Amino acid sequence: MSLGVLEVTPPDLYITRELERRPVKSTDYLGEKRALQDLASRMLDKPDEVLPRFVELAMQMTGGVSAGLSLFEENPAPGIFRWRYLQGSLSRFESATTPRNFSPCGITLDQDTPVLSRHPERFYNWISDAGIVVPEVLLVPLHLGTVEPLGTLWIVSEREGHFDSGHARVATELASFVGIALRVLKTENQLQAALEEQQTLAKEMSHRVKNLFMIAQALVYTTARSADTKEEMTETLMGRFHALASAHGLVRRGFIFGEENENVRDLDELLRAIVRPHEHRSPVQSRFRFAGPSVGLGEHALNGVALIFHELTTNAAKYGALVDECGRIDMEWTRSEKGNLEFVWSEYGGPRIVRQPEAAGFGSMLLRVTVERQFGGQLDHDWSAEGLRVRISLPLAALTR
Fold first, then answer.
1. Cα–Cα distance between 130 and 2 in angstroms, integer?
2. Which of 378, 296, 369, 291 shows the shortest CA–CA distance to 329?
3. What residues contact 209, with CB distance under 8 A and at least 6 apart?
4. How far apart are CA 163 and CA 172, in angstroms?
5. What is the pTM of this model?
């Protein structure tokens, strides 16, 4: 504790009851109405200006000399407050951080009600160490809607005895309005994101249906070449179509069809299900090699991982190693010390690659978007003449969700 700062909480550190005891200064209802109209207008046209304008209005309408938001951040535990949108004499401390469990802001969130504190620098050494003198500070909780704690609004006075219940009421009403407005904005953003996802899914479904027809055509052709009788061809083809349907089911989006995904939870099992339609009939002539540790997949990650390898298998069947009967694919994966799944997909025995494709189709774009955006991973292609090699790095933490 810094020199001159008390070791024990002063009994007059928190004086919230003083708010009701002090006479209320003149009330400007017209000014309050205009302030709410100002915030509502910015919410529609310039939502990024809502919070800084909110702080400015709160300071003006309560007669403070400085004000700001202490926005709560969970990490590092048990959390911190970050000062944002500071106005007035303390604006130089923009983006400073303060402890969640050792601050007036923490007390305010714990009590979930307006709090008044007198000279908090007497007890909180991080305030005195910064050379800040706070005669009085009024703090109001700020929620996102009615549930999520966003942080606190704080307003500093230049003298003791300044704030009263009228100031607390005005600050609380402004904070309540802003919280509701931010909740509306968050909902609107979520709806927009859902609409964009639906459009992507529609393109994805169209792309996958086209791929299914191309794969079906290739299966008919290769089965006809290897079958000796029409009965053998029928039996083999029906088996391959059944396996193809099972693999396709793994990558469907359950909320579109109103169904759950197949009960596959291990990476090795998932890979085998996806490539099964392209396997030879004889188990001793497998076209695929799998090598890697057991990796569990969470329900959310399952769709994305299945989509990645379904796309790679589809491309191999259309252009790569699976075009020829002698083609094969090696799949190897390891767990890295950095907490990633490092996967290598290697194709052999397919058509010789003359040059790298000049333009990426929707399938390639979908593959990269899934790896990089959904999982925060990395994707690299090596277009060697002998066959395509793809390296994929995925955070293991993202695969368990």
1. 11
2. 291
3. none
4. 13
5. 0.50
